[in-house]
Fold:
Amino acid sequence: MAKSKSQPADNTHEPLAKLLKILSSPWTMLLLHRLHMEGPKRFGELKRRLGAISTKTLTERLRMLEAEGWVHRHYEPTVPPQVTYTLAERVLELDPLMVELDRIAERWYGRG
Amino acid sequence: MAKSKSQPADNTHEPLAKLLKILSSPWTMLLLHRLHMEGPKRFGELKRRLGAISTKTLTERLRMLEAEGWVHRHYEPTVPPQVTYTLAERVLELDPLMVELDRIAERWYGRG
DNA sequence: CAGCATCCAAGGTGATACTG
DNA sequence: CAGTATCACCTTGGATGCTG
Structure:
């Protein structure tokens, strides 16, 4: 649509690049997808559901998403401690995206 | 749509993971976005528009997308040669996704 | 112009061990 | 349970130089 002319264009500063940088870091989408589809989850459960992810990576992603304001971390100082992660309200805007992704994934790679 | 049950679940084999693996490799989304918004493009123009990408990476991405059937490569043996890349028809299904991404990027990171 | 071949640095990841 | 701290590795991307 936009028919801007020929610019050197460093995408790095554009909103889309910023968003994609977050979304495209490994595991992030699958992580968000889980929380989106299945609701709030504790660390261990999340890790189990994601399969091959390491605790380190999962922690990093969660910390990043927390810093970005995409997820909330709720710490319950019981014994043993319980930490629950919830999607921030704003992230619900990603819903159409998730649904679209699911649909396309199914159509393109679903059966064979 | 959820697979239900409590499985160790190695997402690696699922359609969504497959799709995300492609989409989340660096530059891929921005690349597709360009082709989507501005139509068929030649290698050099594409490179210039993407900014900081290297020829190596751009080539790799294009080759990958070609192998996946996402883009078509048209070689014109003129002097100098012209190679034009076009989105495959199926990739047009990504349209809603692209639009959504743009909207969200603008809303979340558009103004500061 | 549109790549390809190398080399190399950087960062990300996983495995492992340990703590509150 | 929910992490943190290390370490070693290994892929990945960028820079450079060359070709048809």
Observations:
- The domain at 26-109 of chain B is CATH 1.10.10.10 (Arc Repressor Mutant, subunit A).
- The beta strands of chain B are 41-42, 71-76, 82-87.
- Chain B touches chain A through 46 residues (CB under 8 Å).
- Residues 42-44, 47, 55-56, 58-59, 75, 78-83 of chain B lie near DNA strand C (CB under 10 Å from a C1').
